[in-house]
Every structure is written in structure tokens, then in C-alpha cells.
Amino acid sequence: MFLDRFKDFKNYKTETTPCKVKLSSNENPYDLPQWLKEKVSQEVKKIPLNRYPDPTYRELKEIVATFYGVKPENIVLGNGSDELIHLLITVIGEINQPVMYPVPTFPMYQVSADIIGRPKTEFPLDENFQLSKKSIDRALKEKPAIAFFASPNNPTGNSFDRDLILYTAENNVFTVVDEAYIHFSDKKDFVGEALERENLVVIRTMSKIGLAGIRLGALIAREDIATVIDRIRPPFNITYPTEVIAKTVLTEGKEEINRQIQTIVSERKRVMEEVSKAGNIKVYPSDANFFLIKVPDGNLVHRMLIQEGVLVRNMSHLKGLENCLRVSIGKPEENNQFIKAIKKVVGSI
Ligand SMILES: *Cc1c(COP(=O)(O)O)cnc(C)c1O
Prior knowledge:
349 residues, seven-stranded mixed sheet, 12 helices, transferase, histidinol-phosphate transaminase activity
């Protein structure tokens, strides 16, 4: 009856098999250091939990804005960037105008479009997982109102061609650049364009740099655009504890976060080189805190890795990603266990 539309709905799936080494969700493998945890709990203790948080999130916005090098007026906060993705798909353009995105990519664009009931214009990446002008031109013919580009892209790990993202914006499409993994990349971000253009915004998240548990994302846009989007976001969408934890960590823990990011980036280089040396595994380039590999039999290798105590994300079921596995970068000892396990598994089949 009321929910018939969702009878066969495929929701966002995550990998939940318990495993000793979890390299399946692109999380930061490091929790906060103990001294910062103490600081956080002191601040959390002071929260009047019977009260609503500041509805404008003025102080948190200032801290997030400083963290990203913009002004508080350019920021809209979200309960994870997933909430911002859903909000944009709800409000940009008309409901019968398509949502455009390349495939394979982050599944939430498709999930949100399906929940709202909006048409989707999916277009293929080329054999190097790069955008091509030809397929963008074909997609633009369907008159999409909004486009999503995750760059670096999840699950492929590569960054997209800047000019083709801008080309989409220049063709009158509201263009969202999802920079969830930008901290691990040395490519130029789109903040400059977001502050200039009326129809290009950037979304960021704290989830991949150590705070997946607090659910905090941010949209960066020109002041006039950010003001309107801030007006239509759900009130009190950031919880009081999230506000307080983020304020503490983003001020006192900034250096720690940057150190962790550097370690993850150098581990990425080391692990990818090690895996490349093993035979029968194709390693794709990555600007993120994970990388993609192609193995002889994705489903089998995924299962056998679990038996070795290592959980990665199986991407084999996705079109264009046959036999591909996505591997998050963990702590050095976890990475070593992965390297050992993948060599053993692939060597045995
Ligand atoms: C993980 C991820 C997100 C989700 O971020 P949350 O802030 O945890 O909701 C958004 N976009 C991409 C591309 C991601 O990989």
C-alpha cells in the first residue's frame, strides 16, 4: 500500500562480517589519542542534554570554516555528508529532472534519487575510470538538473579530470563535487570554484579523517547559495554531542589528524607497491585512503581473505568492477597482514 514503491528497494549495503582486520569502510584506522579522548569526555560532560543545541551552529561553523580555509558564511553543516547529498537531491531543480552521475561511484547518489523518485542519468567512466567528454555530452542531452562527481572517486580511487567537471557546470547543471577523500590527494580541490560559481558546490566529511562516529559533513558554497541551503536544512540536524566533540577535536587535534593523514598516505604507497609485486593482481592508482585491485576470482578471494582474518570490500557485483576488491589503508601491522594474506590467497588459486 503506502510503501509499495519500496518493496524491492535496495538500500545502502555495508560489509558487516566480523573480522580481525577491518579494511572495508575507508575509515581512519586510528582512534583519537588518549589525552584528546579525555578532553572530549570533559567537554561532553558539560553538555546540558535537556537543551537543544545552538540552531545556527555559529561556533562550530567558524571552526569548520577555519579548518577548510573559508568563511562561516560559506558553510552548511550536515549529519554526515550523506544528509547533504539527500538534501541537494531533494531541493535542486524539478523532481522530474534527472540526477546525473558517473558509474561506478558512491552508491548514495543513486539511493537518494530512488527514495525521492527522481530519474537518474547514469553514464559510464572509461576503461581507466576517467570521465569522457563523449559520455558527459550524451548525459547532458537528458537535461539533468544536478550532477555528482566524487573526486577522488569511491570505489575506484582516482581523481576526475577538472575540466570535465567544470564543463558540466558550464552547461547549466548544478554541480556537486564530493571531496570526501581530498585530504589524501595532492590534486587541486574545487573550493575556489565553489566560492565563485552559483552552480558549483563542494561537500566534505569528517568520516574519512577520524570522526566517522560523530556523523558530520559540510557543504562549501558561495555565501548567497549557502544561506539558502542553510535555510532549508532540517533544524538541529547536528546533535549537541557532535557539535562539542567536533569543536574540541578540530581545534586541539588538528596536528594529530594531519599526522595520521600523512601516515595513511605513505602506507598507501608502501602497500600498493608491495601488492603490485605479487603476480596476478592489478593495482589501480589511488588518491584516497583506499585502493582498488583486480584479482583472478573476486568472490573467492574475498571469501578466502575473510578466512585469513582480513575483511575488504567486494566490488565484484558492480558493472565494470568484475573481480575487483576495494582495500582501505589500515595501521602498518594491519596492512602487513593484508599483504601477507593476499599473496597467500592469490598464490594458491
Ligand atoms: C564515505 C563517503 C561519503 C559519506 O560520508 P558521511 O559523511 O559519512 O555521510 C560521501 N561521499 C563519498 C564519496 C564517500 O566515499
